[in-house]
Amino acid sequence: MTCIIIEDEKLIALSLEKMLKDEGLTVLGISSDIEESVELIDRLKPDIIFLDINLGKANGFEILRRISHNPYIIFTTAYSEYAVKAFEENAIDYILKPIKKERLRMAIEKVIKAKEQNQLKQTSEFLDLFRKLYVKTPQKINIETANEVHLVDVDEIIYLKSEEKYTFVFLKEEVLKTREALKDIETKLPQDKLIRVHKSYIISLKYIRKIIKNYFGGMAVEMTNGDIIPVGRNYKEHLKNTIGL
Known about the structure:
By secondary structure, the protein is an alpha/beta fold. The chain has helices at residues 10-22, 34-44, 60-66, 83-88, 101-134, 182-186, 236-243, and strands spanning 2-6, 26-31, 48-51, 54-55, 58-59, 72-77, 93-96, 140-144, 149-153, 157-163, 166-171, 175-178, 194-198, 201-204, 208-213, 219-223, 228-231. The chain is elongated, with a radius of gyration of 30 Å.
């Protein structure tokens, strides 16, 4: 990781530089001047700035108001009264002088953890975006009956029911009977459109007419074709979360 030290006491700056290098950080520069500090940060784009608050007549918070780069901020100061203000500026840590190696290492570890979490978040967001843009949700699935293979539009499925050795696929215009297991058909279905609500039932969110509750905490779903589908105890919370109950 890279860093810049903003410190007006030269001996402290040099001591901090040595400790940071010992921790494996690359020090890109040292400054005590507001204008120079802003220029260095925006040009070199360090991962971290170690920022003193009292810079002679200047104030370290002024630098944060003027930079466009967004580094991790670790304040290094002799004055504890600035702590609240420091964290209002989204500082990741606040180290009181004199700076000890152990305390400095703790602050650096916070940055490492924050970077890892941010990278995981960015990776997750990228994958979600990739799936939305490039992974097409299937519009049709194959359902094999006794003598035919039907190309079924998933938007036509009202619900599926498992009964004995068969699965019944209830469509808007017909009902298909297949030996394919419900769990196998489930792997082909878009989970944002059809969800399992019972060990024997998968329903389309599109065709829910209403939710039915009883005094004992049980739940069922009435579909637009008038059929009543029981909701299993283990699936109730998932259904409620999905439809926002």
